[in-house]
Amino acid sequence: MESLPSQTIFGIPYTVSALGEAGEHLARVAAATQEPRLVAHSDVHVLTRMLHEKEYGEGMKSFHYICPDGMPIVWLLRRRKKAEAHRLYGPDMMETVWDCGRAHGVRHFLLGGSEEAIALLREKFAARFPGVEIAGHYCPPMGQWPEGENEAICRRIAESGANCVWVGLGCPKQERWLFTNLPQLPPAVYFGVGAAFNFHAGLVSQAPLWIRSHGLEWLYRLCCEPRRLFKRYLVHNSRFLWYCLTRRI
User: What is the extent of the structural domain holding 32?
Assistant: First the structure.
């Protein structure tokens, strides 16, 4: 099966595709894959971590698809010749793959979030996508995980028979978990989708579409969760501007 086209920014290959095309492709890959395949959704925060943190950047090379999750990255891609870039936003990708996956018999596993969020998400998606197969879920403990937790999670996924595994552990924890445990992951397509569980469950409000399309979602989220997100956006947005200016010069 042919892969989706990509275009590099600062040496990092980003998937260049329309959302519907990417969702259908990944649903077909999930139904057929005999190995674990990793999908990252990269906003400015993830991009600057890949450039600034050697261990994280090296680990992210294990990902088979890095999707442009933020509009600033999409705008950079569009500046390149022949790049038909679109935003492949994690929550939107989740909806698209769940919709497309029904025709391919794709089974889904949810890893992360709270029991409340998972219960609400399962109820809403089962109603929205009739016939969808939810193979299982697991909400790991908060804080430090006990010894053997990674192995137990992999066993749960393998026993579920899932083709798509949605990992909502937050960034950068979810990406680190995926590339660190890649050798023991059961065959499936693994998506790092951050806060998508809470968004779809209705526990956290998403920015309005016009804010997202203008690249201002970070500001909306900062206003909603200033104490948690202030340092992240101050550091990583500043680094992103620095990289753009210095690489251009």
Answer: 6-248
Give the residue carrying structure tokens 């991009």: 47
Which H or E run contains 181?
helix 173-181
**pTM over the 0.85 mark:** yes
In a domain, 1, yes or no: no
Dmax (CA) for the chain in angstroms is 53
Q: Locate tokens 């260049």: which residue?
A: 16
Reduced to 3 states, what is the DSSP secondary structure of residue 85?
coil
In a domain, 222, yes or no: yes
Is 50 inside a domain boundary?
yes
E strand residue ranges, 107-170: 107-112, 133-138, 164-168
- Find the distance separating the first CA and the last CA of the chain, reported in whole Å: 39
Instruction: Please give the tally of structural domains in the chain.
Output: 1
pLDDT digits (tens, 9 = 90+) for 126-164: 999 999 999 999 999 888 888 999 999 999 999 999 999
